[in-house]
Amino acid sequence: MARNSIFQEERKQAILNILKENNRIDVPYMCEIFNISPSTARNDLNMLESENLIKRTHGGAILKVKNEEKEIPSTENEKTMLDEKTLIAKKALDFINDGETVGISTGSSGYALSKALINKNNLTVITNDVKIACFLEQNTNFTIFIIGGVIRNQFHYIMDNVDLPKNISINKFFFSSNGFTIEHGATISDIMLSKNEKILLNLSQKRILLCDHSKLGKTHFAQILPLDKIDEIIIDNGISKSYIKDFKKASYHITIAD
After folding, report:
1. pLDDT (tens digit, 9 = 90+) per residue, 46-62?
2. Can you tell me the distance from the alpha carbon of 244 to that of 255, in angstroms, rounded to the nearest whole number?
């Protein structure tokens, strides 16, 4: 094998290692760390994409996750990135004032937030998650509204069409996603859930995404909101420096929980 081919194989493995660590990579960064031209960097990414190992994005790539669209049941998902979700939930409390109306979307991040709310007072909570509603009913004196419909087995959220009065107003709505990218915003696998959450989000004065760093660089089937429609993003301190730079390039301020 020619020496330049060996170099390329070494670079390809190094690229995959970077993607596993940071979820994404871009061409300028590759040029800097590997001392190669932009065309060589793009060629490396094209080869990795042809091998079905990565997914090309504008100016770079993200790691292609096998079975990315497969959802993890809520009981299992609550065990992943638990410390990070707890940090994010505690930071989210800074955005909640006593007496407000707060929306909390289904998911392990929303459940972590519900557990952090117990020291708040006089809240009205709207949720599409039975487990969140039950926890708050048992541990607080909040007024709780849960939307009606059919419960999705193993996910404990209401999945029928949301039917809410159009004259209600939610001060802040906290939601999560299966994936997030600068280009595609917050995305999830379930299109029905994305439609339902958009209804609640449209009734909200402020939309806040709870996003642990493992979601960054991943895109799923259904978009919840693009970046420019999200008022605040709270991310744990595991976010990579390259992704912080991307948010700065997009002129978007994020809140880092630490």
Report:
1. 888 887 788 888 788 88
2. 11
